[in-house]
């Protein structure tokens, strides 16, 4: 469903990612891993189109989408939860979720119950301002907003980063629940926790110094330890 080959992505003159080649198949959870600063978020931004790749190809369901804007990619089924979440702090939880629904062209005035089923905390807080939520709740809201648009491909950039340790498991459980309920949804997940990645991923890519240096259906300890800094 998604295939990138040799994507080159960076900021202005500085090239950060040099061979961003990866594939996410329908219904797969693919984990993109690697130490801090190796270029994972930059590659994901190139895939979403937030940064425009300077080289390489990007295909979605067999069609080249390298030229299409992030809004167009969203319309075609890309959901993106960036690092830092970027929810609307002055809008209520409900309003944030409605924005997610609208981004898919749906004109709905109420949030469908199935979204709250994934995030019971958000249901209780639906009239609270996004900015008043805890970090973990904001992360749930960011994931909920992306899911509300009914994506075919969900891009999650380190969803447990900066979350209180006792809440991390809740976010992980939510992602596992989404995987088990939405069998056709493909997920590309940037993840630092090897344990969680092993639990959820069908396939792994590891980056080092702007390049994909490992891929496989399992994380073999002796091959990957040094790349993950564990
Ligand atoms: N807005 C920016 N402008 C210029 N350089 C940037 C920008 N954002 C990131 N970089 C640089 O790109 C490199 C890769 O960063 P990136 O965020 O993609 O790494 P990462 O693997 O996702 O790491 P982390 O887990 O710390 O987020 C780093 O050297 C970083 O300094």
From TrEMBL:
GO MF terms held by the record: ATP binding; ATP hydrolysis activity; branched-chain amino acid transmembrane transporter activity
Gene3D superfamilies: P-loop containing nucleotide triphosphate hydrolases
Keywords, ordered alphabetically: Amino-acid transport, ATP-binding, Nucleotide-binding, Transport
Source taxon at top rank: Bacteria
GO terms classed as biological process: L-amino acid transport
Claim: Nucleotide-binding is one of the keywords in the record: yes
Domain called ABC transporter: residue spans: 2-230
Family: Belongs to the ABC transporter superfamily.
Protein's name according to its UniProt entry: Urea ABC transporter ATP-binding subunit UrtE
Species of origin: Salicibibacter halophilus
Gene: urtE
């Amino acid at each position: 469903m998604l295939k990138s080959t040799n994507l080159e992505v960076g900021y202005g003159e500085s090239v950060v990612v040099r061979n961003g080649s990866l594939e996410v198949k329908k219904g797969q959870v693919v984990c993109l891993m690697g130490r801090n600063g190796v270029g994972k978020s930059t590659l994901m931004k190139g895939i979403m189109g937030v940064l425009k790749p300077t080289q390489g190809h990007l295909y979605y369901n067999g069609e080249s989408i390298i030229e299409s804007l992030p809004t167009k990619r969203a319309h075609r089924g890309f959901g993106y939860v960036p690092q830092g979440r970027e929810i609307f702090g002055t809008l209520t939880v409900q309003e944030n979720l409605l924005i997610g629904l609208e981004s898919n062209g749906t004109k709905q005035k109420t949030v469908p119950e199935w979204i709250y089923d994934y995030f019971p905390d958000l249901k209780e807080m639906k009239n609270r301002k996004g900015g008043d939520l805890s970090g973990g709740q904001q992360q749930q809201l960011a994931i909920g907003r992306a899911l509300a648009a009914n994506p075919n491909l969900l891009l999650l950039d380190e969803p447990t980063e900066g979350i209180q340790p006792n809440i991390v498991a809740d976010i992980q459980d939510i992602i596992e629940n989404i995987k088990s309920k939405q069998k056709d949804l493909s997920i590309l997940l940037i993840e630092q926790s090897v344990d969680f990645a092993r639990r959820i991923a069908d396939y792994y890519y590891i980056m080092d110094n702007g390049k994909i240096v490992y891929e496989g259906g399992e994380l073999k300890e002796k091959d990957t330890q040094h790349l993950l800094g564990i």
